## 1
Amino acid sequence: MNNDALFSFAEETDPPSLHSDLNSEWVILSVEDDPGYQQSLSLGLKGLIVNNAPIRLLTASSAAQAAKVIAENDNISVILLDVVMEHDDAGLFLVNTIRNVIGNELVRIVLLTGQPGLAPRFDTMRDFDVDEYWNKVDLTAEKLRSVVTSNVKTWDSLHELAVAKRGLQMIVDASRSITARQEIHSFSDTVLQEITRIIEVEESGGVACIHYPQSMSVNYSPIVAASGEFAQRKATSLNELLGTLDKEETQQLHHCIECAVTEQEHQFNGQWTVLYFSTQDLDNRRYLIIVKSVAALQISHITLLMVFSQNIGNGFTNLALLNKLTTLAYYDTKLAIPNRNWLERELQTTSQTERRNLVLLLFRVNDYFTSEIILGSEFMQAMMTSLFDRLRCEVGSHQAIVRLDEDCLAILVAKSNVPNKSTLQAMSEQVLVLSGIEHRTQLSIANLDMGLVAGEDAEQAIRLAEATLHEANRDGQSVGYYSAHLLHSLENRFTLLKHLRDAISNKGQLKVYYQPKFDLHTGRICGAEALVRWQYDDQTLLPPDKFIALAETSGLITQIDTQVMETVFDDLDNLQSLNCALPISFNVSNLDLLTPDFITALENRLSTSKLTSSLLEIEITETQAMQNYQTVTKVLSKLVGMGVTVSIDDFGTGYSSLAHFTKLAATVLKVDRSFVAQLEGNEKDSALAVIKMVKTFAEQFGAIVVAEGIETENQRDILTTNGYHVGQGFLFSKPIPFHQFRSLLIESHSG
Ligand code: C2E
Ligand code: MG
Ligand code: MG
């Protein structure tokens, strides 16, 4: 070998490779049984620098010895391998061992032979996984250095790729394990574990902490997870952690943290790594992950951490979004208090024993939504806030106040702290001060002793409290107490409702009866009122007061009234064909008038029928006509315009504003039967006054009066004396089936 040919390669400007950072030298193995040639190889490689790192040459003098060295050193980049050693193909045999037994696919193998005939170059390159094949005589010192240099570089690139591939696989695995975590502590714990795995820093460890930018200093950030030696320090804030470090470490770490927060970037500073994440846009939080490693991180580790950090960042963002969703799901954002879902969850997780000791109070603002239309939703929110403050003080010690609905607050309170009935009664009348102005607010209150519904799940318990509220409202009470009886009547109503639905779809179960109206002077029939009955079973004919209210609250009323209206048309057609048709009235609910379908059905029937519209009369109770007054007035005017008579039923019971009345399109006032009944009762004077007043009032705006519920001749006489011409009542006839009514008409016509 010509030593003169040895020279140092010029400094290269290649970027530092992952490997050059990993190792400060390149390990080369020369396998050669000829000590002389071994020596010349050593000399030839002496002083060789590749990518700023020197060569360290390991030697082996036999294939067996080489196999051992290779197995023990996985950082060998190039093997210079003599073919002929212990036996003729010892070198080739070793190639197989390296590739297939040891499993090292990366190491570059350069075969060297002094006897080319024993292993022809082409066949060997084809059959064995070697990278180069040289005749020893052709390998000058210069060539040797260039062969080693190029193979070291190739190995470096391949190794870098392999490391990156392994690292990426680790990141994929790590990312998979962090995405499953939905809670900050377990998420941070997993992140720390995965970082430890990726950069192999088990001896030290790391912490994750939350930094709220508005807090005075980052040092106050609470620690949410810790691993390795930091876990043992049991610090709860960054400050505490810094306190456990020595002075120099504290300074280094403090500096790193400051840089991370100011530059909003990850910091890799010697032993300290500080990763910076921000979810400020979502929840005003920043996260710091601090890792201490035994030595400064290698570039490969930093690269991996940077990639993994993308996923950590996404993880923190997802957590923030999830938290937001949770907040939306469990809190009322307007009042910033828990909501129905929260209460359900709370009750579900409360033990039966604890539940037995609790009472759920509901406070619903009456007519909330009507007020909202008039006063606006902002005002109503302010009202709910003010109510919340008031109830919090008045109920005193309680477990929770929850916004159950827009218009309803719920309070969970221990039995011993529940206000008594009269206090609750007093609480139902609130005077809330909003923007300095007093507002009277009526509340409906329900009291549900959780012990009484121990067998029910949370959702059902809340529903029962609401049902209690509803029942109290129906009965005109401001405070309702849940009782087993309520559940029973609810169940009955539920069954009845189910059957009512069936009755509506099985036509024929709803029967229309007719109660004739009489001319009080002549005693002749002058019309009739259609009244619905429900043929519940063979024996039972249910009167309307058993099911009309239920139909109204469950939205079935319009279907019933449409059926009655259709029957009235059919029956009137029948009477018309017999030449004895008289005006027939039928009852409508205000919900019918608000349903375009009902009015359209009525219009269609009128336009296709030969009947004159004056044969039709609708009756709506005074109370219902006054609800949704504006809309109802318009519909009534339209009906009057079509020639249909409009009667205000049960007149005198509704305490309506007379001003409203004068604008209501009504042609008949039906004085309520309670006044007629009272004409012979204890309060006959005031009943008589009402009878007279209604008559005077009707005259003033051109309506006629009808009296209902006339049971005695005396009542009839008083009514006729006071100007009443038309009436109905048991004195003349009870409501009867159509065929009987028809017979009556035919009879009266022939009479
Ligand atoms: P309403 O429209 O005021 O009907 C008069 C009620 O008084 C009828 O009760 C009738 O049977 C009863 N009545 C008639 N004469 C006398 C009497 O001399 N003495 C007594 N004590 N009662 C008498 P009914 O049929 O039980 O109807 C009750 C209420 O149910 C009706 O009061 C009406 O508001 C409602 N209703 C009846 N049918 C329908 C319907 O098809 N649709 C709607 N929406 N409501 C209906
Ligand atoms: Mg009526
Ligand atoms: Mg009536």
## 2
Amino acid sequence: MQLEARSISKRYGEEQWLFRNANAALQTGEVVGLLGPSGCGKSTFCRILAGYDSSTEGEVMLDGERLPSKGYRPVQLIFQHPERAVNPRWKAGAIMNEGWQPDGSMLESLEINPEWLNRWPSELSGGELQRICIARALAPHTRFILADEMTTMLDAITQARIWKTVLELAASRQMGLMVVSHDRHLIDRICTRVIDFRSLG
Ligand code: ADP
Ligand code: MG
């Protein structure tokens, strides 16, 4: 499968163009890094690629078709700020199980304490809530994961463990992974290809 950004341009309101004519393609099975300085539009680009935001011009195609607007999303975005990606009125267990039921070994490998599932999002740290969001995104029908500064809020050891789990799963299921980060070391270590966001548009 291929996820493709076709000449995507974005501006907010009457502000300057944030980026123009960005073209990029991600194949299943690939681990691609997206690098760029803070504020250049990486998160906006990811939201558009996942169908959470609209582009001003251009379109996103999944195997030559528009992204499905209903039902489970084959392109899952893991947000930089997990607290903005969840319904604060749902307990963590309901959030995690919205689309599927991760099993015990998945919880273990993401280091999710089952006790957290009975808590409200405000009762979890950012890193704990992020692990719930990662589990939520790893449903069997996910084909692409866009990881937007996914582990920035985690300490180095937890970060390494989570990436190991996600990379193994991505490889075994042949998912495509886009790793958005300003951390060149992380990207060099895990990605097969790197895109500099500023060279896209
Ligand atoms: P990055 O992820 O590369 O740091 P972002 O996509 O988060 O960049 O933001 C790029 C620019 O767009 C920033 O200047 C930000 O203030 C602006 N921006 C992001 N979201 C909105 C919005 N909803 N309305 C107006 N401006 C926005
Ligand atoms: Mg960002």
